[in-house]
Amino acid sequence: MKLILSAFFIVFFALTPIAQNIHVALDGSDDTGNGTSENPFATIDYASQFALPGDTVFVHEGTYRNPGFGDGDIWKKTSLGNIKCNGTPDEWITFMPYPGDTVLLETDAKGLYIKGSYIIWEGFEMKGPGDQITMEEAVNAWGLYKDSLGVVHDLAQELGIDYNDPNLWGQYIEKPVLNNISKPAYYNSALLVALKTHHVVIGNNKLHDATASALRNQGGDYIIFKNNTVWSSTYWTSTGVGALTVAEVTVRPEGDTFEGVKNKIESNIVFNNANKLVSWNPHKDFIHWVIDEGSGIFLTRNNDTYDHGYILIADNLSYFNGASGIIVHKTDRVIVEHNTCYHNGTTNGESKAGGIGMNSTVDVTIRNNISWASADKSALYKQGGELINLIVEGNLLFNENGEQSLISGIPDEGYIEANPLLVDPDNGNLKLNGSSPAINNGVTGIYVTYDITGYPRNDGHPDIGAYEYHSSSISEENPVNSKINIFPNPASLLINCEVTNEPVEYEIIDLTGKVVLKGVSSPVNNISSINISELKPGLYILKAGKNSKTFVKR
Predict the structure, then answer these.
(1) What pTM value is reported for the model?
(2) Domain stops at, among 444, 478, 512
(3) In this predicted structure, what is the pLDDT of residue 350?
(4) Which of 15, 135, 323, 449 has the most beta carbons within 10 angstroms of its beta carbon?
């Protein structure tokens, strides 16, 4: 039951160090606006230039799009924006929709890049053009690229191949190495990227229809992806990617030597993402004519760039994705714990990839995960390379074909074989049935003490997978948020909480996971009042006993 909130202050006074609110609205102006609620800016990109440590950028109701949206230019360089401002360890900068407003950020070119540090990005819906693209259109654009002089080429024509020729399947086709080229942004762009930065929290966002990765940590450190929902992405790119990707992580700030968990992928729901085209890498001299990427959660090419710190993948749901549910590829020091993977590997016909996979790793732990593999896939497998210091324990594996091997290329240990008895997995409900063999069968000594909903794992017998079973968990959409009432909400001075008529310990937690207030309630007629006047404006979680709920401090 964690509370998660962002920090924001409400005074806009340009020449003082006091934390302020900066406003963005569709009817605002980057020419004449000053960022106040009465005279807002028009774009997040421009507003971010004025954000100082402790500030909050509030984005008001509406759909915001990249410059040139809908103009038909598939090569355009425009993007949703670049966030370059920097907070401090004690005063993060927050970007979020104004409380009560719904904001959609939509792009048909490049997405949004977070390049500043100590940034919280929370509560947005973000959309790419994927649902507007057909297979025929994507195939016709598959080989297009521009060279360094801006000349357009078609790789398919240059190689003398027809993409739709069935005889190509499975072949290795020679191609020239192509340096300094660009592919059409319309078909090959990520949606939200933390780019070569550090200390960024991306939480509670909905991301979908990206043509390439929907959410990406590219060369960053201390990056947290938490409570995001990612779907229907990575379809049309000719560069093989995963929906939620961590690539080329680099120690930041420079000289940091912390050896604990620094990058986290927690409590995300990742589904129905896939590569639908054969991918080609400009820097390779061949194309393997298969569809072998399009994973849900994808760690790749981190072991050469990252020499301090661990990556945690915990409490995620990954299902109906094209390749692996979770893949750790050329990445060291990873903990994969309490995730539920179901029926992945939907498009990569020849590969056994479908559950949780590894390739060329050192010091990886696979613990307390559920991996349900379809009939022709492996639930837990070595994809390639050497696996050094691999720990596998407390997992529950299952394959729809009872004669299919559950594992491939790894020691036959650290799991039980059984149907996890999920409630309604084909419709996305991956909670545990009351008879599930996952209940109470996980190993102890875990990194995560709450499940995907915030329900505590505190009975000494953790359940396997992302959900901790309890009597109300099947019927309740969010059981953690169901047994506590907060009013008023939003509030500025006091919140009144209706939980129990007995005193109960409570904590208020912000979006970075920091406990900002704690105490013991003093209920009167089942109502407890908590003074929140000293909190910064923003979104928080109140944890009281075994219950928690979000609220907004004005």
Answers:
(1) 0.86
(2) 478
(3) 66
(4) 323
123 in a domain, yes or no?
Answer: no
Q: Where are the beta strands (DSSP E) in 315-394?
A: 317-319, 326-329, 334-337, 340-342, 356-367, 370-373, 380-393
For residues 339 and 239, membership in a common domain is answered with: yes
pLDDT for position 14: 35
In a shared domain, residues 142 and 215 = yes
The tokens describing 321, both together, are 């994705």
Residue 3 lies in a domain: no
Q: Measured at the alpha carbon of residue 404, what is the angle toward residues 399 and 405, in degrees to the nearest 5? A: 90
pLDDT digits (tens, 9 = 90+) for 255-272: 999 999 999 999 999 999
Last residue in a domain, options 454, 478, 502: 478
Pair (465, 485) in one structural domain = no
For 476-510, what is each residue's pLDDT tens digit? 444 333 457 787 777 778 888 876 667 888 889 88
177, 285 Cβ separation under 8 angstroms: yes
CA distances from 443 to 185, 234, 462, 473 (A): 45, 35, 7, 21
In single-letter form, the type of residue at position 474 comes to I
Domain residue limits at 323: 128-478
CA distances from 271 to 274, 321, 346 (A): 9, 6, 11
The whole-angstrom separation of Cα 47 and Cα 176 is 44
For residue 499, the domain's CATH number is 2.60.40.10
Query: Does residue 119 form part of some domain?
Result: no
Question: How confident is the model at residue 323, as a pLDDT?
Answer: 93
Q: Is residue 359 in some structural domain? A: yes
Q: Are strands 110-114 and 192-195 parallel, antiparallel or unpaired?
A: parallel
Q: Find the helix or strand (DSSP H, E) in which 288 lies.
A: strand 286-288
Cα separation of the two ends of the chain: 22
How many structural domains comprise the chain? 2
Give the Cα separation of 67 and 47 in Å (integer): 16
SS3 state of residue 530 = strand
Whether residue 411 is found in the same domain as residue 499:
no
Q: What is the largest CA-CA distance in the chain?
A: 80
Separation of CA 379 from chain center: 22
Residue 510: predicted pLDDT: 80
| Among 36, 283, 89, CA closest to 198 | 89
